[in-house]
Amino acid sequence: MRRLLWIPICMVALLVPAAVLASGGDGGFDGVVSSIESQYHVHATRIPLMGLVSLLSRKATHNAVDGMHVAEFENFQEPVDGEELNRMVEQKLGQGWERIIRETSHNGKDQTLIYMHPEGERMGLFVVDKSGREMDVVQLSIDPSHLKENLGHYEHRHENSGDESD
Amino acid sequence: MAVCAQAQTSPLPLPPPVEKALAARASHVTEVTLGKNMLTFASKFMNGKNKDESATSRLIQGLDGIYVREYQFDKPGEYSMEETEQLRKYFETSEWSPLVREHARKSGETTDVMVKLVNGETHGMFILSAEPKELTIVLILGPIRMEDLGKLKGLGGLGALGDVEKNTGDKDKEKEKAKKGGTQ
Hints:
By secondary structure, chain A is of the alpha+beta class. Chain A contains 5 helices and 6 strands. The radius of gyration of chain A is 19 Å and the shape is globular. Chain B is an alpha+beta fold. Chain B has one domain (16-148). Helix content of chain B is 36%, strand content 29%. Chain B contains 6 helices and 6 strands, in the order αβααβαββββαα. Chain B has helices at residues 16-25, 36-43, 51-62, 81-90, 146-149, 161-183; strands at residues 28-35, 65-72, 96-104, 109-118, 121-131, 134-141. A 6-stranded antiparallel beta sheet of chain B has the order 1-2-6-5-4-3. In chain B, β3 and β4 form a beta hairpin. Classes of the chains: A alpha+beta, B alpha+beta. Chains A and B meet through α4, β3, β4 and α5 of A and β1 and α2 of B.
């Protein structure tokens, strides 16, 4: 019976991203990805079953990581103007997002943009990272205190295992 | 009527033409910008039970901003002395006092540390480190307790602050020693 329950959950996880994509959202993650596609004539590879992956990551991290979106570009032919990319991403992300880190190389090969967005107790993170001919765009929502607790748990385990080996 | 809403970046309180000119000539630029909103938000997630974290939380909660700019150049001479001078002059007001000025003639490296003093308390710190092929600017705005400053060293580009804390601590110890010696 419990197994049967997973069927509708998986269906929702698969259908929600498809519905969001179909709506052709102008801003946010999809807006950024589609503007990169049209501006640089590249095609994004989306991870199959990302909705399900997001759901599982949420479950595995006890809600610490949620709302994962990933898009990958592999065929950038031309260098990217850092100013232009930054302007485009900022415009598509909309209000509330604040850029905290920007790393850019003059030849346009490497670009990194990291934005943060306070979401109550959670924090939205948006990362655009280009290295050579590849670019990754990732969005996720994290609960920092929860995540820290989880990481602390592993740290203690690591410390304990270190003690045992001594 | 279209309303243009877009993501924001807290502007670095430096003369914008200098920043733009440096960025245009640098082969690699790293910018870290943490405005008041982000710092207040980040401080919420520091654990109050941990003494160190609690001190860091207190420190960053009161800050108005942390800005780091690192410009790397392909060859020496791609930024001029006038540009670094312009940056220094921007802080040569009555509020800002020079704390450290180091110049290594052989390597051509210079380090400037300036602090903003309001009623005898530190309310800002500006660090300018210039090497032939690298220029780093760190600007921290808001009330700073020197003894807590090293706690920020975990943040990108602020590793050197650990040494500032160490130096301040050493100086305090020396002062205490001298006091004890004087009373004996």
